[in-house]
Amino acid sequence: MTQHVKRRWMLFSILLFSSAGVQAGSHSASSALVAVNTRDSAVWSLAAPAGVQATQNRSDCVAITWNAVYGATGYEVWRATGMTATKQKIATLAAPTCTHPDTGTTAGIMNYYWVTAVNGAGSSPFSSPPAMGCRLSISGTPSAPIIDVSTNRTDGVVISWEGVPGADWYEVNRYHKPLASHRLSPRA
User: Is residue 116 part of a domain?
Assistant: First the structure.
């Protein structure tokens, strides 16, 4: 008994444009016709993941996120301590996962992250540009300052406090219409 395998073929027209040697404002074009067997998964190359982001505001990890890539069966997350440093694969994840918490970093050190999409045909190029992320270096939560409010003035209110060890800045909020918020650095 002879078996017949149905193959699905798609035709793609590829247009190549060039402005070299042509008058300003015009282009020359040439085309090629390509036939692709759509039943073979190996013909689908993957795009590099887009929208890669890494957090810089967490003390427990750097959270890396990215957009899903059509045709990907998984993703690889890569890390380096510099743009040109050697990349190390830190995670291999099955699709549809598009996030990874990197807990293997040193707090206070900036890291660069790339993501590749993978399927049976191979892997995509690295995402570009790399995302930059850093774990916060927190040795403890600063205690709340003791606030002194002086209201016996005719020109406003004076708010003062002693500096709190470990505080990088103070945020003073006024709850009144309109709402105001001010970020203040400690005085030396």
Answer: yes
Q: Does residue 138 sit within a domain?
A: no
Q: What's the domain count of the chain? A: 3
Same domain, 164 and 117: no
Cα–Cα distance list, 36 to 33, 63, 120, 135, 150 (Å):
10, 39, 17, 46, 78
- Rounded to whole angstroms, how far apart are CA atoms 140 and 87? 32
Which of 63, 111, 129, 71 has its CA nearest to residue 95?
71
Instruction: Identify the domain containing residue 119 by its residue range.
Output: 53-133
N-to-C CA span, the chain = 90
CATH of the domain at 79: 2.60.40.10
What is the pLDDT tens value at each position of the chain, 188 positions in all? 444 444 454 544 444 444 444 444 444 443 344 444 455 444 468 999 999 999 888 888 899 999 999 999 999 999 999 889 999 999 999 999 999 999 999 888 899 999 999 999 899 999 999 999 988 876 656 666 677 777 777 777 777 777 766 666 777 766 655 555 555 666 55
- Look up residue 11 and give its two tokens: 């035709």
